[in-house]
Batch of 3 targets.
Target 1
Amino acid sequence: MKSFWIITEGERTILEPRDVPEPVADPGQIVVRVHAAGLNRGEMIVGGAMHGTEKIGGTEAAGEVHALGTGVEGWRVGDRVMGRVIGRDRGGFAEYTQMQAHQAMHVPEPFSWEEAAAIPVSFLAAYDAVVAYGRLHEDQWMVVTAASSAVGVACVQTGKILGAKVIGTSGSAEKLKILTALGMDEGLETRSPDFAGRIQELTGSGANLAVNCVGGSLFGECMRALGFGGRLATVGYVDGIHEAEIDLRQLHARRQVVFGISNSELGENDRAATAAGFKRDILPAFAYGRVRPRIDRVFPFDELPAAKAHLESNSQVGKIVVEIG
């Protein structure tokens, strides 16, 4: 079968097409005939540091159930399925892939393959950042930096599903208009650490949750934007800045919480718990038509390197997807 491998060369990753055998369904796994797969910045940009130096690319996929391993219940061959696929010898950038059954989710009926492929990784990360660890509730305030990124958009939409009020930052006024149309309450046009004062004004007492999709350059400003008991989620560090100072007096006096969101060291039980929580708390909003994932562009599978270049251009709003098969 056709596949694309991610190869790490120094500080960059490249995509290499390879023909490899079709996978088989091991116990507890589903083999999926892939129809679409999503691109994720952490894998494509920081791939070697987080996932090894060489692997089949693609950490999420959508398609049809092709085969079932022993012990798998609730699925039949031909069912429409979407989910995370993580491992060196399996990935979404292939005509067939393996998926742990606890990561498999039924595709909402009205969704295309491309829409289904846009959900698993970004929205599961958003679920951990906003719901599981962020503990955001109705009428609370959340600020999302780089809100036009795939995870940023997923956080905005997750916040609105919960009934929260959402502020997003972006260096593009046009991107902010698109996000406002998706339900975002306020948009701040900036790429600099200069927004905490405005957020304090908008919220009255500071944000309940800040999701930092940029990195160390905005860490301190996100902390300053928080109110009493506020939480700060660090989702990535695309700015390349991995260190930041923290005001322990503020953290201590205001009872704030700082946490990270990454899948790199999660065990299967933790991955299963996130997927189960998402299916329980958020997926029904997709099934009932309250929200649909925001797709920026769809590329043919053979043009995956061009899709990677588009991701690296930082021009997208939402998810970049490739069609497969």
Note: The mean pLDDT is 94.
Target 2
Amino acid sequence: MSGKRVTHGGGTYGINYNLFALSAKLHPQLAVIDGYEGMEGTGPVNGTPVAHRVCIASLDWLDADRVGAELMGVDFSKIGYLTFCAQSGDRGQSDLSEIEILGPSIKDYARTYQLPKQWEQITSWQKPMMPG
């Protein structure tokens, strides 16, 4: 069985939990998010390009993703693996009030991206698992 099948198995809860578990061992020392052109809707291939013109760089990958979600108008608490990482307390910073922003304020560049059509499925990790 391939590692990809194991990592992506278990439905939306399973994949989010697996990514959280992997983050303990596999995490970048430097996170750079190129948001010059973002994508909304059904990305990363069939979405609509967004000329956002932002860049995020951080020594803390979790705070970079936290800021990225904020810039896109996405509720961070709906992103499973990032929420698990934030709740663990040992993966990085996710509290915006504790993240030092150099340059313009997030609110000056925040947009509201169109979410994927399958957003309800993507966020279904939050629902209690039914006994099998």
Note: The chain has a mean pLDDT of 90.
Target 3
Amino acid sequence: MAEYRIAPLSRLIEQFQHLPGIGYKSAQRMAYYILGLSDNGVKQLTDSILDAHRKIHMCKVCCNLTDQDLCSICRNSRRDHSTVCVVENPRDVVAMERTQDYMGTYHVLHGVISPLNGVGPDQLHIKELLARIKGGKIREVIMATNPTVEGEATAMYISRLIKPLGVKVTRLAYGIPVGGDLEYADEVTLSRALEGRSEL
């Protein structure tokens, strides 16, 4: 059986295995699904991937993903622009928006401080957050990094930078389990965490 190998199929499976959370069996299923698509289906899929890769970039204010200069949240005049919720990645924005309770804006760090993984403060979008705060319109920053060791360290590091600027810094309450990720939390848990946030 080890001799049965189709090189292009093996390469396709290998590419899918690079995706987060995808093991060999899932990668194999995805590859066979692709092979079963019509030429038009494959073209639509590849065009969508290329289009997203070329057009999506970071919002120049909050660093969330967008296909315009400003994301839809930063453009929305009905949002409370005096409150900023700091999250680790764009998926966390989607999770928070599902609660329909939060009407402020966001700031996406694109990671957390993790010396073991070679990630320091300079590799995150902290400077952009500080620049927004120095603009003078922000009254509260909600630290909504995940309740992990790295997330806690990042929240504490940023709060120490913000406090001298005279802005209130709060942390989401622990309705979210320690070690959990925001994107997997349900709406009720996120709502309670948001309501019970505490000052850092």
Note: DSSP finds eight helices and seven strands in the chain.
